[in-house]
């Protein structure tokens, strides 16, 4: 299946959780009449119930036959290194900005990292329903922020949508259209965000997020750089200098599907998955086929090579 990997960047309370809930609903992840009890990117009652700690929250939706993996980005400066690692897994970002508040410190911090890793964000001005919305000024503030953060001309030429995540719509104009929905946002992600680039050769993946799970043990999430990985496959882990960290076997592969993480038999280059079964491999290590001799390097990150116009 074709893929897109994106991050959503927003200051706290600008409406990220609400928007992702709506994206899940409108992409048909929830069955009809099913009540949405858990919020996708909230603190995660489902995970708590199962004893799973999710450090970086991710979800996926399907739109027109394309799977869109959506990763959350911690907004706090304490997570600087983690933010960069997470952003290096994605090829695009939605910068969600409150139409009244405008860009705030967290927006600035994470946008700075996103521009640095070469992403070309989509800007979504949210909460346009607010009586005190000031969309045009907010767009100017976002432009000034990008410019102050040394955005390239391409990055400054960001596509813009306006809308209300709560009311379930986004549109190229501030007026709510008669057929309002989130379709313009989904379509823009498909058009503007490049497909993940895929490396040559056997399975390789940089460990990006590490978690401890009481049932599965150590779980490492990353984007598969090349090849594919199967459940029960022998893999090894190399550190940044190419030294062997461990030899082991993948006991489980988990993919993000809607709100859940689903075990799958096989995963392919470009996808973001979590793998269990290794006991020492950590963040920035290369998880790979036993035939691989060279590690991948977590930094620097090349800007996306595919350029698409909006
Ligand atoms: P997060 O912290 O970015 O995840 O923000 P939430 O999704 O939790 O939303 C923060 C607050 O803003 C909540 O009270 C939401 O009900 C409200 N909110 C979210 N989207 C909208 C919107 O489109 N319009 C308005 N007026 N309020 C919204």
UniProtKB/TrEMBL annotation:
GO molecular function, one term: GTP binding
Keyword tRNA-binding attributed: yes
Biological processes per GO annotation: ribosomal large subunit assembly
Subcellular location: Cytoplasm
EC number: 3.6.5.-
Catalytic reactions on record: GTP + H2O = GDP + phosphate + H(+)
Top-level class of the enzyme under EC nomenclature: hydrolase
UniProt-annotated binding residues for GTP: 13-18, 126-129
GO cellular component, one term: ribonucleoprotein complex
Annotated keywords: Cytoplasm, GTP-binding, Hydrolase, Nucleotide-binding, Ribosome biogenesis, RNA-binding, rRNA-binding, tRNA-binding
Domain spans labelled Tr-type G: 1-197
Main location: cytoplasm
Keyword Ion transport: no
Assembly and oligomerization: Monomer.
Family: Belongs to the TRAFAC class translation factor GTPase superfamily. Classic translation factor GTPase family. BipA subfamily.
Function according to Swiss-Prot or TrEMBL: A 50S ribosomal subunit assembly protein with GTPase activity, required for 50S subunit assembly at low temperatures, may also play a role in translation. Binds GTP and analogs. Binds the 70S ribosome between the 30S and 50S subunits, in a similar position as ribosome-bound EF-G; it contacts a number of ribosomal proteins, both rRNAs and the A-site tRNA.
Name the UniProt record assigns to this protein: Large ribosomal subunit assembly factor BipA
Source species: Oricola cellulosilytica
UniProt lineage: Bacteria, Pseudomonadati, Pseudomonadota, Alphaproteobacteria, Hyphomicrobiales
